[in-house]
Design goal:
Blueprint lengths: L1 H19 L13 E13 L2 E14 L4 E5 L2 E6 L2 E14 L5 E11 L4 E5 L2 E3 L4 E4 L3 E5 L2 E5 L1 E5 L5 E4 L2 E4 L4
Antiparallel strand pairs: 1-2, 2-3, 2-4, 3-5, 4-5, 5-6, 6-7, 6-8, 7-10, 8-9, 9-12, 10-11, 11-14, 12-13
Length: 173
Protein backbone atom coordinates (compact mmCIF):
# COMPACT_ATOMS: atom_id res chain seq x y z
CA UNK A 1 0.00 0.00 0.00
CA UNK A 2 2.86 2.38 0.76
CA UNK A 3 4.39 1.85 -2.71
CA UNK A 4 1.22 2.89 -4.50
CA UNK A 5 0.99 6.14 -2.56
CA UNK A 6 4.61 6.94 -3.33
CA UNK A 7 4.14 6.35 -7.09
CA UNK A 8 1.13 8.62 -7.15
CA UNK A 9 3.21 11.42 -5.69
CA UNK A 10 6.26 10.85 -7.92
CA UNK A 11 4.34 10.76 -11.23
CA UNK A 12 2.76 14.22 -10.87
CA UNK A 13 6.09 15.71 -9.75
CA UNK A 14 7.91 14.16 -12.72
CA UNK A 15 5.22 15.45 -15.07
CA UNK A 16 5.53 18.97 -13.69
CA UNK A 17 9.31 18.94 -13.88
CA UNK A 18 9.25 17.64 -17.45
CA UNK A 19 6.88 20.35 -18.69
CA UNK A 20 8.22 23.32 -16.77
CA UNK A 21 11.60 23.72 -18.46
CA UNK A 22 10.53 23.93 -22.11
CA UNK A 23 9.35 27.15 -23.76
CA UNK A 24 6.43 26.36 -26.06
CA UNK A 25 5.02 28.56 -28.75
CA UNK A 26 1.27 28.22 -29.09
CA UNK A 27 -0.10 29.10 -32.51
CA UNK A 28 -3.39 30.89 -32.17
CA UNK A 29 -6.02 29.91 -34.72
CA UNK A 30 -7.60 32.98 -36.29
CA UNK A 31 -11.36 33.25 -35.78
CA UNK A 32 -13.52 31.92 -38.61
CA UNK A 33 -15.98 34.81 -38.51
CA UNK A 34 -19.05 32.57 -38.54
CA UNK A 35 -22.18 33.30 -36.53
CA UNK A 36 -25.47 31.47 -36.05
CA UNK A 37 -28.60 33.62 -36.00
CA UNK A 38 -32.17 32.71 -35.09
CA UNK A 39 -35.12 34.56 -36.63
CA UNK A 40 -33.05 35.84 -39.58
CA UNK A 41 -34.64 38.67 -41.64
CA UNK A 42 -33.39 40.84 -44.51
CA UNK A 43 -35.51 43.73 -45.75
CA UNK A 44 -34.73 45.63 -48.95
CA UNK A 45 -36.38 48.94 -49.78
CA UNK A 46 -35.98 51.55 -52.50
CA UNK A 47 -37.28 55.08 -52.20
CA UNK A 48 -39.08 54.11 -49.02
CA UNK A 49 -40.99 51.30 -50.79
CA UNK A 50 -40.65 47.64 -49.96
CA UNK A 51 -38.81 45.51 -52.56
CA UNK A 52 -38.04 42.26 -50.78
CA UNK A 53 -38.28 40.60 -47.35
CA UNK A 54 -36.39 37.36 -46.67
CA UNK A 55 -37.19 35.48 -43.47
CA UNK A 56 -35.88 32.26 -41.98
CA UNK A 57 -35.94 30.55 -38.61
CA UNK A 58 -32.13 30.34 -38.65
CA UNK A 59 -29.04 31.26 -40.63
CA UNK A 60 -25.30 30.85 -40.41
CA UNK A 61 -23.38 33.95 -41.42
CA UNK A 62 -19.82 33.64 -42.73
CA UNK A 63 -18.42 37.16 -42.47
CA UNK A 64 -15.17 36.30 -44.29
CA UNK A 65 -17.07 35.16 -47.40
CA UNK A 66 -20.04 37.55 -46.85
CA UNK A 67 -22.50 34.66 -47.28
CA UNK A 68 -25.48 33.56 -45.22
CA UNK A 69 -26.50 29.89 -45.32
CA UNK A 70 -30.22 29.73 -44.66
CA UNK A 71 -32.63 26.90 -43.89
CA UNK A 72 -36.13 27.10 -45.40
CA UNK A 73 -36.03 30.76 -46.43
CA UNK A 74 -39.24 32.54 -47.42
CA UNK A 75 -38.75 35.52 -49.73
CA UNK A 76 -41.60 37.95 -50.42
CA UNK A 77 -41.20 40.23 -53.44
CA UNK A 78 -42.85 43.61 -53.93
CA UNK A 79 -43.20 45.92 -56.93
CA UNK A 80 -43.74 49.61 -56.12
CA UNK A 81 -44.47 48.54 -52.54
CA UNK A 82 -47.24 46.09 -53.59
CA UNK A 83 -46.89 42.34 -52.91
CA UNK A 84 -46.25 40.30 -56.10
CA UNK A 85 -44.92 36.86 -55.12
CA UNK A 86 -43.37 34.53 -52.56
CA UNK A 87 -40.38 32.25 -53.12
CA UNK A 88 -39.82 29.30 -50.75
CA UNK A 89 -36.69 27.11 -50.89
CA UNK A 90 -35.42 24.16 -48.86
CA UNK A 91 -32.01 25.81 -48.32
CA UNK A 92 -30.26 28.83 -49.75
CA UNK A 93 -27.04 30.80 -49.79
CA UNK A 94 -27.37 34.57 -49.99
CA UNK A 95 -24.54 36.89 -50.96
CA UNK A 96 -24.75 39.62 -48.33
CA UNK A 97 -23.09 42.17 -50.64
CA UNK A 98 -25.31 41.71 -53.71
CA UNK A 99 -28.36 39.90 -52.22
CA UNK A 100 -28.08 37.27 -54.98
CA UNK A 101 -29.59 33.97 -53.81
CA UNK A 102 -28.80 30.35 -54.70
CA UNK A 103 -31.67 28.10 -53.65
CA UNK A 104 -31.15 24.36 -53.19
CA UNK A 105 -33.64 21.53 -53.27
CA UNK A 106 -37.30 22.11 -54.05
CA UNK A 107 -38.07 25.76 -54.90
CA UNK A 108 -41.58 27.21 -55.36
CA UNK A 109 -42.75 30.66 -56.48
CA UNK A 110 -46.39 31.56 -55.76
CA UNK A 111 -47.72 34.84 -57.19
CA UNK A 112 -50.51 37.18 -56.11
CA UNK A 113 -52.31 36.07 -59.31
CA UNK A 114 -52.48 32.42 -58.05
CA UNK A 115 -49.75 31.17 -60.38
CA UNK A 116 -47.17 28.63 -59.22
CA UNK A 117 -43.69 27.82 -60.48
CA UNK A 118 -41.87 24.70 -59.25
CA UNK A 119 -38.27 23.70 -59.89
CA UNK A 120 -35.06 22.73 -58.08
CA UNK A 121 -31.86 24.65 -57.44
CA UNK A 122 -33.22 28.06 -58.41
CA UNK A 123 -31.17 31.27 -58.44
CA UNK A 124 -32.24 34.88 -57.90
CA UNK A 125 -30.30 37.74 -59.46
CA UNK A 126 -31.00 40.83 -57.31
CA UNK A 127 -29.66 43.27 -59.90
CA UNK A 128 -31.97 42.11 -62.71
CA UNK A 129 -34.78 40.97 -60.35
CA UNK A 130 -34.98 37.60 -62.12
CA UNK A 131 -35.21 33.97 -61.01
CA UNK A 132 -33.80 31.15 -63.13
CA UNK A 133 -32.82 27.50 -63.17
CA UNK A 134 -31.27 25.06 -65.62
CA UNK A 135 -33.39 22.29 -64.10
CA UNK A 136 -36.86 21.10 -65.14
CA UNK A 137 -39.62 23.58 -64.37
CA UNK A 138 -43.42 23.47 -64.07
CA UNK A 139 -45.71 26.50 -64.13
CA UNK A 140 -49.40 26.21 -63.28
CA UNK A 141 -51.68 29.11 -64.20
CA UNK A 142 -55.32 29.69 -65.18
CA UNK A 143 -56.21 26.26 -66.52
CA UNK A 144 -52.83 25.42 -68.05
CA UNK A 145 -49.65 23.67 -67.01
CA UNK A 146 -46.35 24.44 -68.72
CA UNK A 147 -43.39 22.09 -68.34
CA UNK A 148 -39.89 22.87 -69.56
CA UNK A 149 -36.23 21.96 -69.19
CA UNK A 150 -35.12 25.35 -67.79
CA UNK A 151 -36.40 28.91 -67.38
CA UNK A 152 -35.74 32.58 -66.63
CA UNK A 153 -38.48 34.88 -65.28
CA UNK A 154 -39.16 38.04 -63.32
CA UNK A 155 -40.29 37.45 -59.74
CA UNK A 156 -44.00 38.00 -60.46
CA UNK A 157 -43.88 35.57 -63.44
CA UNK A 158 -45.08 38.16 -65.98
CA UNK A 159 -42.07 37.73 -68.31
CA UNK A 160 -41.01 34.09 -68.59
CA UNK A 161 -38.71 32.26 -70.99
CA UNK A 162 -39.07 28.46 -70.78
CA UNK A 163 -36.85 26.12 -72.79
CA UNK A 164 -38.42 23.07 -74.53
CA UNK A 165 -41.99 23.84 -73.50
CA UNK A 166 -44.79 21.35 -73.23
CA UNK A 167 -48.17 22.96 -72.52
CA UNK A 168 -51.21 21.11 -71.19
CA UNK A 169 -54.48 23.07 -71.36
CA UNK A 170 -57.28 21.95 -69.09
CA UNK A 171 -60.75 22.51 -70.56
CA UNK A 172 -63.74 22.79 -68.31
CA UNK A 173 -67.20 22.20 -69.81
Amino acid sequence: MEKIKLLCVIIPITFLLGCGGADKVIDETPPIGEHAIEKFTITETEGGKLKMIMESESATINENMSIAKINVPIVKFYKDGEYTSTLVMEKADIDLDTYDVKGYGRCVVDTAENERLQTTDLQYDAKTKTVFSKNPVRIERKGETIDGTSFRADTNLENIVIENQKIVIERTN
